[in-house]
């Protein structure tokens, strides 16, 4: 009688690799992965502080006291916080004017012009439709401001797509054109006859002014700006159109090959960015100035460029960076009073930060290229096989 061999015990499946890794190591890996995009910005901040300290020491000024005063002027008291948040409110929206077109690979720096035209369009609505109730009037002002700013920046995207005009140059030049048009209208056809020394449009009725938030002496533009940043992040990360914009920004030829409407996506990104900057102009008119005048041209559009680059075009990071840059701008008067430094000292600090951001962007780009080259030299056969299969 032949004996039947006993069945071999089933091989136990190996535990997944994730189970063998301790939880704290997984948490550290997640945190490092999340913090990696912020490393160039943090390095740029460190380099900026070092250069700013040297700048002050060369003038014989107490660098340590100046840095402490910047912190106190930005975040030291409740009044400082309110001043910081008041300045950060428009920066949230003007930074989106840079970050959203950057998703499709465009560097648009014309937020100042979109803000000016948005504020002007918002200031004209009470004269065109005076019978509307306050809530409807504020909504109409917001829509008019977004349309004005969106069309202005979308024109830059159209020039890029159909006339091959560099969007950085065209947006900057169109910003100057928008500011000139703003001044012409405010000081000419739309000027309030009662505004003698400071030309402005007719003042908004008190009922149409935007009130402050109940728990802060800051207008509601701050809250709406934060909501816009969150909505932009959700749109870019979790929508089909946002994913398509990322493909266009990564490689336009690939986007065309897979059939994406590249022109439409670029116009959409530019229009959304311009609409955000125009909305910032509406909030400045309806909550701060009460009319369209030269005080609206405070440089928030240009500061938004710095905020967007510091946030590495991430809408959620824009919220943090806008508060930091707003605090730096708010501390200028304290430096002037305590250390007799010019108010423009904070502009020097912002300029140093922008230069450091560009430098670290270049360094990280070079390091990524070197890493890829080393990988190619270390595994030439594997890369050759992948190329042959492709």
UniProtKB/TrEMBL annotation:
Its main location: membrane. It is a multi-pass membrane protein. Signal peptide: none annotated. It is found in: Cell membrane. The chain crosses the membrane at residues 30-57, 88-111, 131-156, 168-186, 218-236, 257-280, 286-309, 316-335, 347-369. Keywords: Cell membrane, Membrane, Transmembrane, Transmembrane helix. This is ABC transporter permease. The lineage of its organism: Bacteria, Pseudomonadati, Pseudomonadota, Betaproteobacteria, Burkholderiales.
């Amino acid at each position: 009688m032949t004996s039947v061999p006993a069945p071999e015990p089933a091989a136990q499946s190996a535990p997944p690799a994730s189970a063998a890794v301790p939880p704290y190591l997984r948490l550290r890996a997640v945190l490092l992965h999340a913090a990696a995009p912020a490393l160039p910005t943090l390095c740029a901040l460190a380099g900026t502080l070092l250069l700013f300290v040297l700048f002050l020491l060369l003038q014989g000024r107490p660098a340590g006291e100046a840095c402490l005063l910047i912190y106190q002027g930005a975040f030291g008291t409740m009044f400082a916080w309110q001043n910081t948040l008041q300045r950060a409110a428009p920066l949230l929206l003007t930074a989106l004017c840079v970050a959203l077109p950057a998703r499709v690979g465009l560097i648009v720096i014309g937020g100042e012009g979109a803000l000016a035209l948005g504020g002007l369009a918002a200031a004209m609505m009470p004269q065109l439709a005076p019978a509307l109730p306050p809530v409807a009037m504020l909504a109409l002002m917001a829509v008019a401001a977004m349309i004005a700013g969106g069309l202005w920046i979308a024109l830059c995207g159209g020039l890029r797509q159909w006339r091959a005009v560099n969007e950085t140059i065209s947006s900057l030049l169109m910003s100057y054109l928008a500011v000139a048009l703003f001044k012409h209208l405010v000081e000419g056809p739309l000027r309030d006859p009662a505004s003698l020394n400071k030309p402005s449009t007719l003042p908004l009725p008190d009922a149409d002014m935007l009130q402050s938030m109940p728990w802060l002496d800051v207008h509601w533009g701050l809250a709406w700006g934060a909501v816009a940043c969150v909505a932009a992040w959700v749109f870019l990360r979790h929508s089909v159109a946002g994913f398509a914009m990322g493909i266009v920004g990564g490689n336009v030829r690939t986007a065309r090959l897979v059939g994406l409407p590249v022109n439409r996506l670029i116009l959409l990104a530019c229009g959304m960015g311009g609409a955000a900057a125009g909305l910032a102009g509406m909030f400045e008119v309806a909550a701060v100035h009460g009319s369209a005048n030269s005080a609206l041209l405070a440089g928030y559009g240009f500061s938004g460029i710095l905020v967007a680059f510091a946030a590495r075009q991430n809408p959620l990071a824009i919220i943090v960076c806008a508060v930091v840059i707003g605090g730096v701008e708010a501390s200028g008067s304290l430096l002037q009073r305590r250390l007799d430094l010019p108010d423009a000292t904070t502009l020097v600090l912002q300029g140093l930060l922008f230069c450091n951001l560009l430098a670290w962007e270049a360094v990280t780009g070079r390091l990524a290229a070197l890493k890829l080259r080393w990988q190619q030299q270390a595994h030439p056969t594997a890369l050759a096989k992948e190329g042959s299969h492709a």
